[in-house]
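Re: the request from the purification team.
They wanted to know what the chain is likely to look like in 3D before they choose a buffer screen. I agreed to run a prediction and write the result into the notebook, where they can find it.
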Amino acid sequence: MTAECDDLLATIFRDTKTITVVGLSVNPARPSNDIFRFLLSRGYDCVGVNPGLAGQTIHGAPVFASLGAVDHPIDMVDIFRASDAVAGIVDEALALVPHPKIIWTQLGVIDEAAAARARAAGLTVVMDRCPKIELAR
Protein backbone atom coordinates (compact mmCIF):
# COMPACT_ATOMS: atom_id res chain seq x y z
CA MET A 1 0.00 0.00 0.00
CA THR A 2 1.33 3.41 -0.92
CA ALA A 3 1.72 6.38 1.37
CA GLU A 4 -0.74 8.23 -0.89
CA CYS A 5 -3.35 5.52 -0.33
CA ASP A 6 -2.67 5.54 3.42
CA ASP A 7 -3.17 9.32 3.46
CA LEU A 8 -6.45 9.02 1.53
CA LEU A 9 -7.79 6.39 3.94
CA ALA A 10 -6.72 8.42 6.97
CA THR A 11 -8.53 11.46 5.56
CA ILE A 12 -11.66 9.40 4.86
CA PHE A 13 -11.78 8.02 8.39
CA ARG A 14 -11.07 11.41 9.95
CA ASP A 15 -13.65 13.35 7.91
CA THR A 16 -16.42 10.74 7.75
CA LYS A 17 -19.19 11.09 10.30
CA THR A 18 -22.12 9.15 8.78
CA ILE A 19 -21.89 5.69 7.22
CA THR A 20 -24.68 3.72 5.60
CA VAL A 21 -24.07 -0.02 5.30
CA VAL A 22 -25.95 -1.38 2.30
CA GLY A 23 -26.65 -5.08 2.66
CA LEU A 24 -26.58 -5.06 6.47
CA SER A 25 -27.49 -8.42 7.99
CA VAL A 26 -29.21 -9.04 11.32
CA ASN A 27 -27.13 -12.25 11.65
CA PRO A 28 -24.19 -11.52 14.02
CA ALA A 29 -22.10 -14.15 12.20
CA ARG A 30 -22.21 -12.14 8.96
CA PRO A 31 -19.34 -9.74 8.20
CA SER A 32 -21.71 -6.82 7.53
CA ASN A 33 -23.14 -7.13 11.04
CA ASP A 34 -19.70 -7.34 12.65
CA ILE A 35 -18.31 -4.37 10.73
CA PHE A 36 -21.47 -2.34 11.42
CA ARG A 37 -21.04 -2.99 15.16
CA PHE A 38 -17.34 -2.11 14.89
CA LEU A 39 -18.02 1.20 13.08
CA LEU A 40 -20.64 2.13 15.68
CA SER A 41 -18.13 1.35 18.45
CA ARG A 42 -15.68 3.73 16.78
CA GLY A 43 -18.18 6.58 17.07
CA TYR A 44 -19.51 6.72 13.53
CA ASP A 45 -23.20 7.53 13.01
CA CYS A 46 -24.27 4.37 11.15
CA VAL A 47 -27.52 3.22 9.62
CA GLY A 48 -28.26 0.11 7.64
CA VAL A 49 -29.98 -0.46 4.33
CA ASN A 50 -31.80 -3.73 3.82
CA PRO A 51 -35.35 -3.80 2.43
CA GLY A 52 -36.17 -6.97 4.37
CA LEU A 53 -35.17 -5.38 7.69
CA ALA A 54 -36.53 -1.84 7.16
CA GLY A 55 -37.96 -0.33 10.32
CA GLN A 56 -35.89 -2.53 12.61
CA THR A 57 -32.80 -1.59 14.57
CA ILE A 58 -29.49 -3.44 14.63
CA HIS A 59 -27.05 -2.63 17.45
CA GLY A 60 -29.42 0.23 18.30
CA ALA A 61 -29.18 1.86 14.87
CA PRO A 62 -32.04 2.10 12.35
CA VAL A 63 -32.35 0.10 9.17
CA PHE A 64 -33.93 1.63 6.06
CA ALA A 65 -35.37 0.05 2.91
CA SER A 66 -33.15 2.03 0.54
CA LEU A 67 -30.53 4.78 0.40
CA GLY A 68 -33.27 7.20 -0.64
CA ALA A 69 -35.17 6.45 2.56
CA VAL A 70 -32.26 7.41 4.85
CA ASP A 71 -33.41 10.51 6.71
CA HIS A 72 -30.12 12.43 6.84
CA PRO A 73 -27.10 13.15 4.62
CA ILE A 74 -24.63 10.31 4.18
CA ASP A 75 -20.85 10.68 4.06
CA MET A 76 -19.98 7.09 3.13
CA VAL A 77 -21.92 4.29 1.46
CA ASP A 78 -20.34 0.97 2.46
CA ILE A 79 -21.55 -1.74 0.07
CA PHE A 80 -21.95 -5.33 1.28
CA ARG A 81 -23.55 -6.68 -1.87
CA ALA A 82 -22.32 -8.67 -4.84
CA SER A 83 -20.40 -6.80 -7.53
CA ASP A 84 -23.38 -6.97 -9.92
CA ALA A 85 -25.46 -4.88 -7.45
CA VAL A 86 -22.93 -2.04 -7.18
CA ALA A 87 -24.09 -0.16 -10.31
CA GLY A 88 -27.64 0.22 -9.02
CA ILE A 89 -26.44 1.27 -5.56
CA VAL A 90 -24.10 3.86 -7.05
CA ASP A 91 -26.95 5.19 -9.22
CA GLU A 92 -29.15 5.46 -6.12
CA ALA A 93 -26.34 7.26 -4.25
CA LEU A 94 -25.85 9.70 -7.13
CA ALA A 95 -29.58 10.52 -7.00
CA LEU A 96 -29.26 11.70 -3.39
CA VAL A 97 -29.03 15.41 -2.61
CA PRO A 98 -26.49 16.00 -1.32
CA HIS A 99 -24.45 13.13 -2.75
CA PRO A 100 -22.49 10.96 -0.35
CA LYS A 101 -18.78 11.78 -0.37
CA ILE A 102 -17.51 8.19 -0.53
CA ILE A 103 -18.49 4.92 -2.14
CA TRP A 104 -16.75 2.01 -0.41
CA THR A 105 -17.04 -1.60 -1.55
CA GLN A 106 -16.07 -4.52 0.60
CA LEU A 107 -13.44 -7.16 -0.10
CA GLY A 108 -14.08 -8.87 -3.43
CA VAL A 109 -16.70 -6.31 -4.52
CA ILE A 110 -15.57 -4.51 -7.68
CA ASP A 111 -17.39 -2.60 -10.43
CA GLU A 112 -15.02 -0.35 -12.38
CA ALA A 113 -17.77 1.23 -14.52
CA ALA A 114 -19.85 2.21 -11.47
CA ALA A 115 -16.70 3.50 -9.77
CA ALA A 116 -15.92 5.65 -12.81
CA ARG A 117 -19.45 7.16 -12.73
CA ALA A 118 -19.09 7.94 -9.03
CA ARG A 119 -15.66 9.52 -9.53
CA ALA A 120 -16.97 11.58 -12.46
CA ALA A 121 -19.63 12.96 -10.08
CA GLY A 122 -16.91 13.97 -7.61
CA LEU A 123 -17.15 11.07 -5.15
CA THR A 124 -14.17 9.26 -3.69
CA VAL A 125 -14.25 5.53 -4.39
CA VAL A 126 -12.55 2.80 -2.38
CA MET A 127 -13.06 -0.72 -3.71
CA ASP A 128 -12.17 -4.18 -2.52
CA ARG A 129 -11.25 -3.11 1.02
CA CYS A 130 -12.66 -3.53 4.50
CA PRO A 131 -12.98 -0.45 6.74
CA LYS A 132 -12.48 -2.56 9.87
CA ILE A 133 -9.15 -3.86 8.54
CA GLU A 134 -8.08 -0.41 7.35
CA LEU A 135 -9.01 1.31 10.62
CA ALA A 136 -7.14 -1.32 12.61
CA ARG A 137 -4.05 -0.73 10.49
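For the purification team: The first strand starts at residue 18 and ends at 22.
Please add any questions underneath this entry.
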